[in-house]
Amino acid sequence: MTSFFLSKNLFVDSNIFFKLDKKNNTLCFISSFGKVEFCMYDTSCFVIKEGQKLSFFYIFSEYEKRIKKRLILSKKKKLGSLIVFFKQLLFRLSQPNFCSITLIGMGYRSQVENGNNTLSLHLGFSHRIDLQRPNNVRFFVRKIQRHHEIFFYCSTLCESKNLGSTIIRFRPVSPYTGKGLVWTGAPILRKEGKGQFKR
């Protein structure tokens, strides 16, 4: 019995390393900005690796081609959506998404230690705070005028934002003194103290 198939090709940049695990039907993409693993839960979709090209296939029998036209149409749409998803994923892996935090306050500083694997924070406490670097995140510290800034680079903006939000919780900016951790460029809403109110 003859077979009919739908296919789409995806070309991967040479700066991105990827591997195909046919046993678990998973794809792994690795770049200098992060690592992403994707599991193909749809077992009817076959993936073939040829150099820097990935080919996705849906195979149908001649009977399904004549009878199940709606099924073939839905698989064709799903295949197109899958290719668009992987193109967006590879674009994010090739260009880093980053965010930055500014440390405002006397003695507030940060530094990178242990070969860019540990972020040390001095936030006015009696102890310092050490954070281990996640596998898919890179950060570095830069001093601008009197303030320190921490930059987070990651394959997805969501992960870098999550790490930045975790750090901000250690010392949120105070509305009275204006000191603390804040997103770079974000406005600081100040409040008047009790001593400044007129009687």
UniProtKB/TrEMBL annotation:
Cellular compartments per GO CC: ribosome
- Gene Ontology process terms (BP): translation
Record's keyword terms, sorted: Mitochondrion, Ribonucleoprotein, Ribosomal protein
* One MF term in the entry's GO annotations: structural constituent of ribosome
The answer, when asked if Hydrolase is one of the entry's keywords, is: no
* SUPFAM superfamilies recorded: Ribosomal protein L6 (SSF56053)
Query: What name has this protein been given in UniProt?
Result: 50S ribosomal protein L6
Q: Which species is this record about?
A: Leucocryptos marina
